[in-house]
């Protein structure tokens, strides 16, 4: 191998492997700020019992608690939504926390770029700082919030849970309004029809001596009876709807309150440094093989 080739290889090694690894050591060893994680767990339950639930779900079933995976996914989506973030920003100065705390690389808009100081960019940044996980076998959901201060992580997680509880209440209220509105409309129509048929019967009975018609009278009686039965059915339907609402009422039951971590496990300093070295070494090896192939082709 000629001296020129050796110099090129040495230059590539320094540029692709040694320099990135050195920068990684500097950043993760001396610059990167600690990130603290607050975790909370909860379950979405209702009074409506379900069967064929295993594990922890079986326990909840025995005490009259069930959960809906569909509802849980909806609530998890809300927790990661722009609406939830906007609601939290009305209570906590979270953009200031993530802009002023942390190192220049990991905090939001660390280089203070005007075009990057937008709500949408901040939402995307927070989307990575807030993690949600759902175990479909137990129905347990976990919220993890990462922040540069342990108290900040706790407060944000607590507000996320409160927002989720409020969202569950909105779901219950909307379902109640829809079901009750439909049942009341059915009852109102049945009541109007019953009054109409009762009035027709009263008028017929009042004028029966002047213009008696047995067939018409029987039809009015039948209509009156049907109208009463429909009213009774609508009344029963309303009562059943009220019972169904109670059975389907959703509750966000906290299992573990937001934690206050006194230990930071992020960033993974040693792991990230070693990963940088291995990845850059692989890249260097690939480039070196390509260059060797080019040299052989020229020869």
Blueprint of the fold:
Layout: H1 3-31, E1 36-46, H2 56-62, H3 69-79, H4 82-89, H5 94-100, H6 119-129, E2 130-135, E3 140-147, H7 150-206, H8 214-248, E4 250-256, H9 269-298
Antiparallel strand pairs: 1-3, 1-4, 2-3
Helix pairs in contact: 1-9, 3-7, 4-7, 7-8
Plain-language structure description:
The protein is an alpha+beta fold. Among the domains are: 1-32 and 267-299; 175-248. It is built from nine helices and four strands, in the order αβαααααββααβα. The longest helix has 57 residues, at 150-206.
Annotation keywords:
299 residues, alpha+beta, four-stranded antiparallel beta sheet, 4 strands, elongated
Q: Largest sheet, order of strands side by side?
A: 2-3-1-4
Number of strands: 4
User: Judging from the principal axes of the Cα atoms, what is the shape?
Assistant: elongated
Report the β-strand fraction as a percent range: 5-15%
> Topology as H/E string?
HEHHHHHEEHHEH
Structural class: alpha+beta
Mean pLDDT: 84
What is the overall number of helices? Answer: 9
In short, what is this structure?
The protein has 299 residues and is of the alpha+beta class.
């Amino acid at each position: 191998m000629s001296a020129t080739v050796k110099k090129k290889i040495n230059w590539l090694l320094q540029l692709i492997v040694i320099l990135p690894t050195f920068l990684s050591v500097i950043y993760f060893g001396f610059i990167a700020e600690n990130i603290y994680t607050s975790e909370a767990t909860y379950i979405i339950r209702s009074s409506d019992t379900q069967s064929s639930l295993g594990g922890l779900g079986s326990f909840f079933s025995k005490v009259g608690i069930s959960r809906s995976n569909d509802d849980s996914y909806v609530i998890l989506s809300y927790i990661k939504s722009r609406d939830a973030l906007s609601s939290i920003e009305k209570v906590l100065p979270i953009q200031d926390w993530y802009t002023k705390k942390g190192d220049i690389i990991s905090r939001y808009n660390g280089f203070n770029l005007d075009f990057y100081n937008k709500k949408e960019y901040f939402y995307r940044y927070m989307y990575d700082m807030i993690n949600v996980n759902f175990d479909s076998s137990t129905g347990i959901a976990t919220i993890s919030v990462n922040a540069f201060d342990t108290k900040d992580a706790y407060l944000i997680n607590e507000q996320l849970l409160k927002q989720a509880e409020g969202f569950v209440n909105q779901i219950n209220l909307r379902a109640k309004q829809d079901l009750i509105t439909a049942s009341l409309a059915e009852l109102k129509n049945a009541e109007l029809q019953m009054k109409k048929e009762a009035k027709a019967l009263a008028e017929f009975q009042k004028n029966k001596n002047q213009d008696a018609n047995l067939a018409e009278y029987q039809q009015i009686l039948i209509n009156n009876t049907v109208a009463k039965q429909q009213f009774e059915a609508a009344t029963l339907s309303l009562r059943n709807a009220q019972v169904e609402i109670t059975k389907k009422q959703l509750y966000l039951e906290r299992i573990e309150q937001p934690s206050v971590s006194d230990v930071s496990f992020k960033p993974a300093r040693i792991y990230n440094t070693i990963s940088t070295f291995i990845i850059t070494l692989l890249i260097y090896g690939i480039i070196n093989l390509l260059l060797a192939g080019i040299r052989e082709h020229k020869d």
